[in-house]
Specification:
This protein is an all-alpha fold and 225 residues long. It has one domain (2-220): 3 helical TM bundles of succinate and fumarate reductases (Up-down Bundle). Helices cover 76% and strands 0% of the residues. 18% of the residues are buried.
């Protein structure tokens, strides 16, 4: 355990934690978007999908137990991810006594520069999303066990749909830079396939962003009723 803590105290240790938790979070975001595509199959398919998630491993974990276990793991991953990011930022700032006079963006792009504030925005958005579609505290007509109706009713409000669409901008930037950095930390760093790493990161970001934006747009245009 001492070796583990010593590793975490180092810069590479924190980057490993961010990479591992990043794998979990990116995997969840992609799976979450893919599962929501059942909205296009109709209310019955989407509601059955929600029921499947609630009843998965029910004999062992109880009704809805799987979802709460998954949420707990994701919450821990988010906490570890944010803490490591904050500590890395502090270490980076402490490593240089004087700020650079000339800023070069040869390696860092707009996505990397926006990671910090984008992460703050996403953390706030996650809380809003949970209160809206998971617990229903801020959903005007929330009904437990009716994900299709909740999504349609939620996105019928234009400013709510607009907020979700705008939230995809920092999410896309975060996914792009995060996936690229995550693959690099996990060892996918070689001149032969560095260009592939960027393409994979861009593909992940675009697939998730386009998929998520399609839901409020489909509701607003009447494609999903």
């Amino acid at each position: 355990m001492r070796r583990v803590f010593r590793l975490y105290e180092s810069t590479i240790g924190k980057k490993i934690v961010m990479a591992v938790t990043g794998v979990l979070l990116v995997g969840f975001v992609v799976a979450h978007m893919a599962g929501n595509l059942k909205m296009y199959a109709g209310q019955e398919k989407m509601d059955h999908y929600g029921e499947f998630l609630r009843e998965f491993a029910a004999p062992v974990l109880g009704h809805g137990g799987f979802l709460w276990v998954a949420r707990a793991i994701l919450l821990l991953a988010v906490a570890a991810h944010i803490r490591s990011a904050i500590l890395l930022t502090r270490q980076s700032q402490a490593a240089r006594d004087v700020g650079y006079k000339v800023t070069t963006r040869r390696e860092s792009n707009y996505a990397s520069l926006s990671m910090r504030w984008g992460g703050v925005f996403l953390a706030a958005f996650i809380v809003l999303h949970i209160l809206h579609f998971t617990t229903g505290h801020i959903h005007p007509t929330f009904e437990h066990g009716a994900p299709y109706a909740n999504v349609v009713a939620g996105f019928t409000v234009w400013w709510t749909a607009a907020l979700y669409i705008l939230a995809m901008i920092p999410l896309g930037l975060h996914l792009y830079h995060g996936t690229w950095s995550m693959l690099q930390t996990l060892g996918a760093n070689h001149p032969r396939y560095n260009h592939l790493r960027r393409k994979i990161a861009l593909a992940v970001a675009l697939i998730v962003v386009v998929g998520n934006i399609s839901f409020p747009v489909a509701v607003l245009t009447g494609l999903i009723k």
